Amino acid sequence: MAGNEWINGYLEAILDAGNHYGKIGGDNSKSAAKTAKFDGPDRHDGKGNNEEAVSSLFSTTRYFVEEVVNSFDERDLHRTWIKVIATRNTRERNNRLENMCWRIWHLARKKKQIAWDDAQKLAKRRIEREQGRNDAADDLSELSEGEKEKGDGNNGSESSSSVAAAAKDKFARINSDVQLWSDEEKPRHLYIVLISMHGLVRGENMELGRDSDTGGQVKYVVELARALANTKGVFRVDLLTRQIASPEVDSSYGEPIEMLSCPQDAAGSAGAYIIRIPCGPRDKYIPKESLWPHIPEFVDGALNHIVNLSRAIGEQIDGGKPTWPYVIHGHYADAAEVAAHLSGMLNVPMVLTGHSLGRNKFEQLLKQGRLSREDINSTYKIMRRIEAEEFGLDAAEMVVTSTRQEIEEQWGLYDGFDVKLERKLRVRQRRGVSCFGRFMPRMVVIPPGMDFSYVKAEDALEGDGDLKSLMASEKSQKRNLPPIWSEVMRFFTNSHKPMILALSRPDPKKNVTTLLKAFGECQQLRELANLTLILGNRDDIEEMPEGSSSVLTTVLKLIDKYDLYGQVAYPKHHKQNEVPEIYRLAAKTKGVFINPALVEPFGLTLIEAAAYGLPIVATKNGGPVDILKALNNGLLVDPHDQKAISDALLKLVADKNLWVECRKNGLKNIHRFSWTEHCRNYLLHVEHCRNRHPTTHFQMVPVPEEPMSESLRDVEDLSLKFSIDELKANGELDPVARQKELIESLVRKASLNGNPSGNNYTGRRQKIFVIAVDSYTSTGGFSENFPAVIKNIMKAARVDLGLQRVGFVLLTGATLQETLESLKVGDVNVADFEALSCSSGSVMYYPWRVMEADLDYEGHLEYKWPGENVRSMVLRLARSEDPEDDDIKEFNGGCNSKCIAYDVKAGAKVKRIDDLRQRLRMRGFRCNLVYTCAGSRLNVTPLFASRTQALRYLSVRWGIDLSDTAVFVGDKGDTDHEYLLSGLHKSIILNGTVEFGSERLLRSNENFKRGDVVPGGSPRIATVEDGLKSYLISAALTNLGVK
């Protein structure tokens, strides 16, 4: 019953808190109300925060209620309730105690039920994922006799022993004919694009730790960009990030371009650059959770920059032919989505690095039980993040991980990846047999590199640590010591002792408190060594986030408990450039570095410590396993075992021979984690990805003058200047010859089309008006509003605004035949359109020439398209649990080479888009799914086919900036409707033009919300209350700045 005594104490504390607030409210309720109404907004704490808001962050009542609910079993609560009833009297306090006890008991039961429901959902998802894996495995389990013969014929030299060796290690890589990346290969001029969207990114004086968005990822991508630019064969590296022109941050984050490494004339390199793309609110620094609705805008800006720069580089090194990126690499979930869209648009390979993953975080938060599923989603936008990561897996050729643990325990949680299925598919690809339309990205382990340029030669000397200089009595000698050394040593009674160093954030997951307990309870270790804890920077612990504050408070209490004064250092501040000096100090004292984290995804600090000759002790959970295997310079421990931690530290510090051996091994093997080695492995794996990626690229209409993207406007890019200067030195095309070549190209194109107006779009149009109004009847046919809307938009542009150089494009989910019939009935001339994209962006036509599909566009969509392999699978998966035979059936009239269409019976229960996409991913299929025609049709198209991608394709091919484009949509529409609203283009929502939409079939209520896709209050979106009136349409265009 000891637990009940604690409960009673907590309940009494809740009552006392209630009485306290009750008196305040009772005595001063009127004056408090007046204060809240008139004075509240002006009362601040001196730091820009409202006092009432600050005080509301902590509630005594809530604290004790959470303690009762989270710390005790409901049976204890029930026993306490019975006891209160048995001792009931007429006192008001006892009655309140009984009532409160009953309410908290029910609250605990409700929490338990919610936890049970969440666990059931996770279990159900695991079962569905396993079923999907089994379905895929059944299809791939046996090779037909013909496939066996083909495999044997193509790989006659392959012995059975090599297959057995591959089976032995489930992560064994399939050997390819690709040679190792070598400096002796033929000259290359590679253009590489890296994307890290959130946080504060700059090359010098990085503000690491300033906030949760500016951490190790920023350092990683900046150093990777520099290292790649210094690799032979790489011409230029661009690191794309968000441009921030906010008074809250330094002005350097608002500069459109920043040079990371200088162009090397001798090496034929243009260097590395940070390119900042405008995205979202220009004057605000917003957290990554708020960036999701602005991703399409970033995609459009990045696309403009890449296209313009590819042309400029092509002019310099490839005779005018655009030099497209060699690879596009997205870092974290937001950049993964950006990279996926750009990869599909430009038809180049995509690489993904997750850094940290949403699904793993989501499951951990659910297990903690402190936040509901809804609260987690609203706070962290976790479902939006998970979908971006899944989409990144769909599009990625390769996923770079730091450790094998990340592959198994983190990426293995995702619908789009399965270790066993990925291996089976690679085996089949090598043998040249069918994968039945299935695809899995290739996971490769490439540890992050490290910049060893600031490691001094003396750090690698194999000698005893020299501490005499630290203890010098003369002030002149002490003045030469690094300031951080003095700051650390002032804590110690005896600075001669070896230093045990721990360096991390003050995060509970870093497990610093267990380390401190291990040190405090081991008398031998305390007598032998000192302990230094570098736990970030702080001014006032009380002003820090709750988790950090709690850790630091516990650290101070433990130091006091074990009386560790004079033995533990815990400096308040340190600069990033002082970290190497901290490592040097520990090495000079013959110390040890320790990382005791509960789980460490990688462990970059372990590599840094090894570079300075420090032996290491590290957690056995996660990346340190691979690091110590490579370096062989320390010991692994169970982070929960205090005795194991103290024993390992004591062993390394006390055994001098072991210490020297670990030091030597670390210094000898550290080159494995250099950026040079990282880039070599990286480019080797990317080369393999490119060998099986299509090479179809844009056949762009030549444009005499192409406007620069907004990210480069008004900026003199030094690398472009370098390119232009070199061109002048080498000689350039005569302007007359260039003009003649351009005219001949256009004439050839017109003659090939057999149409005298074949050059209808060769730069004559300055703007594009895109009509994507999904106006259907309840049965799925075009409504009468459809042609009326088209006529009103054309009238608003040509008559009301007098815009004559506007090209019109129609985007629809219906087929070409259905569209032409509707236009004919509505008396709309199809020749008024520059392009028609039908069947949800799966096909492109140009009415001003022969009405045939654009083969270049289809080539962009081909990759990863499962085609016939997915036809029957969709029928089976799209039906509800108790389906009727005709709920959904194939619609042959809506199918084409890049679209499989299905008719959906009115009122039929079919799977939503998010549910159906999930089931297809589990089976290795990568598709885009759209319900169209008022929900009466399902279009299954290639992954990169969509109406937004069709628009981007035309803008690049025709050289039209997306900011000069207007997209007209209804207030509802197909399930891809909301994705048409965001981006650099202007969006005009025409109310009253669409009566029946398909949004109900998009996603469940538990998924992310529309606000995570469409930016609220965007200056690029306008709404027309009556979309059938042309003068209102023209007024909306004028308000958006369309002239």
TrEMBL record:
Source organism superkingdom: Eukaryota
What is this protein's record name?
Uncharacterized protein
Instruction: Give the source lineage, highest ranks first.
Output: Eukaryota, Viridiplantae, Streptophyta, Embryophyta, Tracheophyta
